[in-house]
Amino acid sequence: MLTQIKGLHHVTSLASSASRNNTFFTDVLGLRRIKKTVNFDAPDVYHLYYGDEVGTAGSVMTYFPFRNAARGRAGTGEVGTTSFTVPLGTLKAWAYRLTTYGTTDLETDTRFGERRLLFKGPDGDAFALVEADDARTPWTGNGVSQDMAIRGFHSADMRVKDGGASAELLKFMGYEEVDRAGNVTRFAISGGNEANTIDIETLPSVGFAGQGAGSVHHIAFAVENRARQLEVREALMDTGYQVTPVIDRDYFWAIYFRTPGGVLFEIATNEPGFDVDEDTAHLGEALKLPSQHAHLREKLERQLEPLEA
């Protein structure tokens, strides 16, 4: 069993409009845009990062907004709902806020004793706010007060046809089964960050998802540094997984592999962090380009959709 993984690092999804995506996460949810850069493989597409003040691992939601992308089709082989923690007793205030901003499909329920508010993002993205006692310091610079602001990720749901192999993978990665109800099994990792929970939802009769706007592209798990990442890579490969070489993503190093259930996993380092090329006070303000795309700056600044600060 691995001991290097410390919980979630980030979740990356697809969108159809950069400006609408930016407005939703900063104005509605109150998160900070911590990085405005571009997709390494498609530099005419933004890569936008949102999180707490410094982009702490376990707080970062990222997006590739492909302009006018068709909406994805929900199904198995993907991350379904991405959940954030909010303080106890704040779901009513959040429901009012989301409704005021025109957010649709609000629904409340309780899962494993925790109250949740489920809602949809601009592209039908599935989200939940979960009430929890979470000591992480939130970002409050976008008008959401500290007494209700999002603290970071709570968990992510994996929707799969057969949960057995995915459960074994999570256990190998250091997660333990902590609860079960119906077709949902909860796994958590101890000794890590607060974003330490994964729920496996087993749906044998549901077809495979089709990726598009609103779909999660991949889910990333955190390790402290490159040395721990290489240990994880070797262990996964020894177990039979096809793992990519280490890729420099400027703000972290990444490796990727496909799970038995079809979900794309990433293992990302906490180093060097999002302040490597911007002062903390100005994160997410300037367009930052990977070195291989620096020569495209003039063209990209003309073509990319303008975003509010």
UniProtKB/TrEMBL annotation:
<feature type="domain" description="VOC">
    <location>
        <begin position="7"/>
        <end position="132"/>
    </location>
</feature>
<dbReference type="InterPro" id="IPR029068">
    <property type="entry name" value="Glyas_Bleomycin-R_OHBP_Dase"/>
</dbReference>
<keyword id="KW-0560">Oxidoreductase</keyword>
<dbReference type="InterPro" id="IPR037523">
    <property type="entry name" value="VOC_core"/>
</dbReference>
<protein>
    <submittedName>
        <fullName>Putative ring-cleaving dioxygenase MhqO</fullName>
        <ecNumber>1.13.11.-</ecNumber>
    </submittedName>
</protein>
<keyword id="KW-0223">Dioxygenase</keyword>
<dbReference type="GO" id="GO:0051213">
    <property type="term" value="F:dioxygenase activity"/>
</dbReference>
<dbReference type="Pfam" id="PF00903">
    <property type="entry name" value="Glyoxalase"/>
</dbReference>
<feature type="domain" description="VOC">
    <location>
        <begin position="152"/>
        <end position="270"/>
    </location>
</feature>
<dbReference type="InterPro" id="IPR052537">
    <property type="entry name" value="Extradiol_RC_dioxygenase"/>
</dbReference>
<dbReference type="InterPro" id="IPR004360">
    <property type="entry name" value="Glyas_Fos-R_dOase_dom"/>
</dbReference>
